[in-house]
Amino acid sequence: MNSSKPSLKQKFTAWLENASMLDDAMEKDLAKGSDLKAQENEKAVYEAWEQRQKNRHDTAVQEEHALYERIHHWTMTGGAKTATILYRLFCIFVCLAVTAFMLMMVLDMPAYGNANSPVNNEVSARYIEKGMEETGAVNIVAGMILDYRAFDTLGESTVLFIAACAVLTLLRIDLNRHGLPTEELIAAEADDRHHEPKDDVILQRSAALLVPIILLFGIYIIFNGHLSPGGGFSGGAIIGAGMILYLNAFGFKATGKIMNFRVFTVITFCSLMFYGLAKTYSFFTGANHLHSIISPGIPGNIFSAGLILPLNIAVGMVVACTMYVFYALFRKGGM
Amino acid sequence: MTLFTYVLLGFLIVSALCVSLFKNLLTAVVVFMSYSLVMSVIWMLLESPDLAITEAAVGAGVTSVLFFITLKKLHAIEKRRKPENEQQ
Amino acid sequence: MLDWLRFILTAVLLVGGITVMCISMYGVYRFKFVLNRMHVAAMGDTMGLFITLLGLSFSAPDFTTVIKFFLIVCFLWIASPVASHLIARLEVTLNDHLEDEMEVLK
After folding, report:
1. What is the domain extent for residue C53?
2. Would you state the pLDDT for residue A193?
3. A113: nearest Cα among B46, B42, B6
4. Cβ atoms within 10 A of the Cβ of A248, count?
5. Is C96 within 8 Å of B77 when comparing Cβ atoms?
6. Is A303 on the interface with B (CB under 8 A)?
């Protein structure tokens, strides 16, 4: 430390901390060697160059700003207008194209009531000629959808059931962990009777008169499905509408006694299971020109047409429950 | 195809256009209801009473009721303010 | 003779019912306020339908059809006024400036 000459270690640390010794040496050389004039000249050249760069940069920035402003302005006015016009033109084009396509398809179709159209083939002829004999149903439509094409109808009922499940998962408001109503449920129940008649005597009296008739009519349509127009879907929808009227008149407390979540699950599950099992059994025993065990009965009787009546009842129950559950869930998020 | 059928079909087209063009959702739902009703009459004329019953019960009845409830949930059916308040 | 009588009765009643329906339809567009329009609409539903079905029942093929018409009229005479009542209730609840449209007795 006391020596005037720095030690190797000091040199090394100085080199590490500041800069390289070589740089220092070069700097010293430059300061000594270059003359003042050259230095000033160099400085002026450098400044001029810097100024040029700066000017160039500024003009570039200005141009960029101007361009940006122009584009921005254009998108806000002209661009928006053009986009709207293009969008509308595109919409009109798509509409016209789809319409033209569909009209072309219609032109390709056989004429209404044409006897030679491919729809009038041997299948429909067989349905019309032998439908009553084979299924026992006077109403050919019921014989078709519940006997010849019964798995189709099973799929349709299942689609309804899946739709009800989706609505349940989306809209149902659950109780909390302790089995008590949550705040959301209480708010939904308070909102439910908002702007709606509560205990309206006129509505209640007329509903008490009409609901049994509506339900009876629906049951008649279901039970008579193989004899007259109607069947499970129509009758079920009518029963569902009657139950909705009853719910509107008397509120959730009255309908909750006969219809709750558990009843809905049990009824739909049992109906669909019964449908699937019965139809599997009937196909297993009756299809492929085997003699069917389930007899069609005498056409025209109420207990005839084999499996069509029970299948109608099953479909009707699924449809009625689904209608009611849709309404209840849309309205309050529960039953 | 009688004149009656053509009138009904024209009504169908007009109401289908109206449903998409009306700004008021409640009006659109009511027009859709009338569409379903006319559709059920057309099914009846095409000799398929099964479909006519289903269309009248589901299309005109239950579907519109569900639409109305949805509109109520969206607060599309609300108290109307006084016209004086709107001007101020 | 009887056939002619039936035909004339049916025609007159049908025309009358359709006239009532048309008047009610015109009234729905003519009136401005909901309660007036509701009254007119209910008129078409009850009286127009009754007269039309009465006319149709004169030319019905058998008595069962007449009973069906009667049941339809019964159903609509119960259902339609109740629907009008509910619409009126909703209008009274939702309309704040009901006093501007009519005289309200309290």
Report:
1. 2-95
2. 65
3. B46
4. 19
5. no
6. no
Q: Which of A195, A206, A213 sits opposite C82 (nearest CB)?
A: A206
In a domain, B2, yes or no: no
pLDDT on residue C15? 92
Taking the Cβ of residue B74 and every Cβ of chain A, the question of whether any pair is shorter than 8 Å is answered with: no
Query: Hey, are the CB atoms on A213 and C75 less than 8 Å from each other?
Result: yes
CB burial of residue C27 (10 Å; 0-12, 13-18, 19+) = middle
- Inspect the interface and report whether the beta carbons of A206 and C94 lie closer than 8 Å: no
Tell me the per-residue pLDDT of A196-218, one tens digit each, with 9 for 90 and over.
Answer: 666 778 888 888 888 998 899 88
In a domain, B86, yes or no: no
Separation CA A291–CA C6 (nearest Å): 55
pLDDT at A159 over 70: yes
User: What is the amino acid identity at position A66?
Assistant: A
Nearest CA in chain C to A245: C79
pLDDT at position A98 is 95
Q: Does the residue B8 lie in any domain?
A: no
* Average pLDDT of span C42-62: 86
- Is residue B7 in a domain? no
Give mean pLDDT, residues A171-182: 73
* pLDDT exceeds 50 at position B88: no
A330, B77: Cβ pair inside 8 Å? no
Contact indicator for A182, A190 with CB cutoff of 8 Å: no
Q: pLDDT by residue (tens digit) across A276-306?
A: 888 777 777 766 545 555 666 676 666 676 7
Domain that holds residue B58: 23-76
If you average pLDDT over residues B32-60, what whole number do you get? 88
Name the percent of chain A in helix, strand, coil, to the closest 5: 75, 0, 25
Contact B40, A237 (CB under 8 A): no
C96 and B78: CB-CB below 8 Å?
no
Give me the total of CB pairs closer than 8 Å, taking one residue from chain A and one from chain B: 47
A319 neighbors A221 (Cβ within 8 angstroms): no
Dig out the tokens for C23 from the structure. 């008047």
Helices A308-331/B63-73 angle, 10° precision? 20
Across the interface, whether the CB atoms of B82 and C97 are under 8 A apart is answered: yes
Q: Does C101 touch chain B (CB under 8 A)?
A: no
Q: How many domains does chain B have?
A: 1
Single out the residue of A241, A268, A267, A246 nearest to residue A256, CA to CA.
A246
Say whether residue A229 is in contact with chain B using an 8 A CB cutoff. Answer: yes
Q: Are C11 and C60 in contact (CB under 8 A)?
A: no
- Burial of residue A299 (CB within 10 Å: 0-12, 13-18, 19+) is middle
Q: In chain C, how many domains are there?
A: 1
